[in-house]
Amino acid sequence: MTTANSVTKLDPEHAIAYVREVPIEASPPPVTARGALGWLRANFFATPFDTVLTIVMLLLIAWAIPPVIDFLIVDAVWSGSDREACLATPQHPEVGACWAFVRNRFAYFVYGSYPLAERWRVDIFFAMLAVGIVWMLKLDAPRRDIGAIYFFVVLPIASYVLLRGMPALGLPAVETALWGGVLVTIVVATVGIVASLPAGIMLALGRRSRMPAVRLFSIIYIEFVRGVPLITVLFMASVMLPLFVPEAYSPDKLVRALVGIAMFASAYMAEVVRAGLQAIPRGQYEGAMALGLSYSQMMRFVILPQALKITIPNIVNTYIGLFKDTTLVFIVGIFDLLKTIEAARVDPSWATPVTSTTGYAFAALFYFACCYMMSRYAKAMEARLAHGERR
Fold it and tell me: Are residues 182 and 287 in the same domain?
């Protein structure tokens, strides 16, 4: 007997078999396993421990976040010309962040004591740096080979000429002692980030080298630098570096700090790169050698691209730590963003109970925004590379 959806057949043993021609429609998942309710159950209430932890975190957020929002936004003072705007009054007994102070001192936080008439040079530097960063970080940008020349050759020379000055070109000289704020933070972080990766790669390869002298030097350098705090390296660069050059050629404070930051970051980056090199299977080396590639070609085309891709999270983590560690340069007398806030908050014309807190909140938001953008870019790059591998 045959119907529209089934057929009955008689097998050799006279048993009745039911064969369905049209599959049964899939049943919908349970309500608790789909939609927003399913997502919440899977991510926050999957187990009793997860449920307790979620409730504790919600209570903590409810206790901590509202006062922060009230201070930074609801009760904040957004305009004013002096401290009177940020003082409590009978009409406004609760005074939040004094953003009027930040607005009034914003130029100082960005440029430091850089001459007012020459600050256009800093703006051009920021614009050129932004172009170089986008050109290098955008994987599908056109002619990234030219972008590399621009970023590693043209930009450093042009930045030095713009910021330091060159009277022959009509640009008055500006001493680095007048630089400050975001300008110094960006310069120190950029130099440290750009210099640490190639230097770290060389040190990592040197530590794995078969030449005893090269391997011993790399091991001593990495272990020594990683065994001391950054502030010690900065003090050594600030005090001892001038002893190795004639007094007439002694570098200024900013150059000494740049050297110390680059040396410190290179040692940590070397260990990050070495971890990636050790993760590469031995067959990759053997395959490259079987193709007749030289050592430099093997590293350039086969090993290093894979090792760096593996260690992208660790590289970005090192960069984020380095960016935040730039605040330590103010201890050796360099006016970075934190130092300018320290100097501005003691101004009697803005002396209020909330001035210092507001300045530090501004610095925290600045560093958080920069570090968050770096982490998001790293995550997007990982996802893109993983998608390429699946394809």
Answer: yes
Q: Output Rg (C-alpha) for the chain, integer angstroms.
A: 30
* Long-range contacts at 116-119 (CB < 8 A, ≥ 24 apart): 118/165, 118/171, 118/172, 118/174
Query: Per residue in 104-159, pLDDT tens?
Result: 999 999 999 999 999 999 999 999 999 999 998 887 888 888 988 999 889 999 99
| Domain contains 84 | no
Asked whether residue 101 is assigned to any structural domain, the reply reads no
Quote the number of domains for the chain: 2
pLDDT of residue 87: 85
Q: Looking at the structure, tell me whether residues 35 and 123 fall in a common domain.
A: no
Distance, CA of 368 to CA of 370 (rounded, Å): 6
pLDDT at 241 over 80: no
Query: CA dist 132 to 92, 150, 350, Å?
Result: 48, 7, 38
Residue 10 bridge partners (DSSP): 16
* pLDDT reading at 84 higher than 80: yes
Q: For residue 163, what pLDDT is reported? A: 92
Is the predicted pLDDT of residue 9 greater than 70, yes or no? no
pLDDT band at 16 (very low <50, low <70, confident <90, very high): low
End-of-domain residue from the set 9, 25, 42: 42
Residue 74 is assigned to a structural domain of this protein? no
Please give the residue range of the domain that contains residue 183: 117-390
Q: CB atoms < 10 A from the CB of 69, how many?
A: 12
Q: What is the DSSP string of 217-281?
A: HHHHHHHHHHTS-HHHHHHHHHHTGGGGS-GGG---HHHHHHHHHHHHHHHHHHHHHHHHHHHS-
Could you give the angle at which helices 212-226 and 253-279 cross, rounded to 10 degrees? 120
Whose CA is closest to 358, among 109, 181, 97, 86? 97
Helix or strand or coil: residue 20? strand
Residue 150's identity, in one-letter code, is Y
Cα torsion angle, 191, 196, 197, 201, sign:
positive
